[in-house]
Design goal:
This protein is an all-alpha fold and 429 residues long. It is 54% helix and 2% strand. The chain is built from 18 helices and four strands.
Length: 429
């Protein structure tokens, strides 16, 4: 324990102290520059309405009725703003209509305060029994969106959530075709219903079960394309996709495209052409050269990182293997810099300088992880298509600029140069 805060570690206390210092500086900079952020747009009106009766009454007079949707995701500050405007106990109009389901709150991570949307709290906030005003709560019992098996499963899960007292929903939508009734928990000795609920001891067990279920269905004659896995977050989807690919199940997902290692390596090759580039060179060096040593020498000698790779004063201080890697990087960057297009740079790096294609092909031949390798090849193809589209856009903009300079016509010498540029853009390497 530190600072009298029971239940918090010393590290937690230090981090909280650091954040508070940063926050104070942030608030001071806003004040000095006359700026506000999103939180201020709620906090400042609340403070003003609390302190100034005239402002509060004027604002209340602007709204005959207030409608709030997804009330369970309103944060405390916004809830206080609503109470100042509409709570009869605070002199508000009482004309508030809010639609809410505390079980659907998904924004707690950014301050949602679902408990204020609970039945008891809502009645307390928007009633004034001294004036004979009682907030009214009406339960919505019918679900018009989902078919009965989904509603039944949701009803089952609600029993394990806080405030389970809400009425069970009734499905109104008729299912398309015949749908089995849900049975919870599912009896593993009987054919499984159309919808069932299963808990797992670990994420690994869950991923293995998903892969096994799809494999079984495929063996029974169902195409892989008939399956879909729904996830709440990108990280979950990435984990599922990786597990399925490792089980040699084809997956139509590449995850966060620009976060994939293949994409980052190729993009680093383009970024390395900037004379001041450092991080890209680290990625391209693959640990075979101490780039921090090279960068330090470059700073001392007043060189750019790229200049340092071929400077004799730097090279003589490197180990023989590091000298070879420096020569390789320097030669690669010089050749890539001669390409006229982004597509040319990327294609040259992928096919001439990197081991991306051989590595992926080797993984394809090993039998395990073949789907992951296919995804990698697909991603590289998509990246080249993106680069080609970018280059074509640049060419179109260049042509348009030339036309504007000549009043709508491209002069003969400019047209010839444009044609040469177009041909160059379509050459590999």
């Amino acid at each position: 324990m530190e600072g009298g805060l029971s239940g918090y570690s010393a590290v937690d206390v230090r981090r909280a102290d650091e954040r508070s210092k940063v926050y104070r500086v942030y608030e001071e900079q806003k004040r000095l520059r006359g700026l506000v952020d999103f939180g201020d747009l709620i906090m400042l009106p609340v403070g003003l309405m609390r302190s100034d009766v005239a402002v509060r009454e004027e604002e209340r007079g602007c709204y005959d009725h207030i409608l709030v949707d997804e009330y369970q995701d309103v944060n405390f500050a916004s809830g206080e703003l609503l109470r100042l405007l509409a709570s009869p106990a605070q002199g508000g109009t009482g004309n508030l209509w809010a639609v809410s389901d505390v079980h659907q709150s998904i924004y707690r991570w950014r301050g949602a305060f679902p408990s204020q949307a609970g039945r008891d709290n809502f009645i307390q906030d928007y009633s004034d029994r001294g004036k004979g005003i009682e907030a009214e709560v009406r339960e919505l019992e019918h679900n018009y969106r989902s078919v009965e098996p989904i509603v039944a499963l949701a009803t089952h899960l609600r029993a394990f959530m806080p405030d389970p007292s809400t009425l069970p929903l009734k499905a109104v939508r008729e299912p398309a075709g015949t749908t089995s009734k849900v049975s919870l928990p599912a009896d593993e000795c009987q054919p499984k219903p159309a919808l069932y609920y299963t808990e797992f001891e670990s994420t690994a067990d869950e991923l293995a079960a998903i892969a096994a279920s799809i494999t079984t269905n495929h063996t029974d004659g169902h195409a892989y394309s008939e399956h879909a896995v729904l996830c709440r977050r990108h990280e979950q989807a990435d984990a599922v996709a990786e597990a399925l690919m490792m089980a040699d199940i084809p997956v139509a997902r590449v995850g966060e495209f620009y976060s994939r290692p293949e994409v980052q390596e190729v993009v680093a090759a383009v970024a390395a052409l900037a004379s001041s580039a450092r991080v890209p060179l680290v990625k391209l060096g693959h640990g075979r050269l101490s780039m921090s040593h090279v960068f330090g020498l470059a700073d001392k000698l007043g060189l750019t990182p790229i200049q340092a790779l071929k400077d004799s004063r730097v090279l003589e201080l490197l180990e023989p293997k590091e000298q070879q890697e420096a020569a390789r990087l320097s030669g690669m960057i010089a050749e890539l810099a001669s390409r006229r297009t982004i597509w040319g740079v990327m294609a040259d790096y992928i096919f001439s300088w990197s081991t991306l294609i051989p590595d992926l092909v080797e993984r394809l031949g090993k039998g395990t992880g073949g789907q992951a390798a296919k995804q990698g090849l697909y991603v590289l193809g998509q990246l080249l298509l993106i680069a080609h589209a970018f280059d074509m856009g640049e060419e179109a903009r260049s042509t348009k600029a030339a036309q504007q300079r000549t009043g709508g016509q491209i002069a003969p010498d400019e047209r010839q140069q444009s044609q040469k540029s177009t041909k160059a853009r379509h050459r590999l390497a």
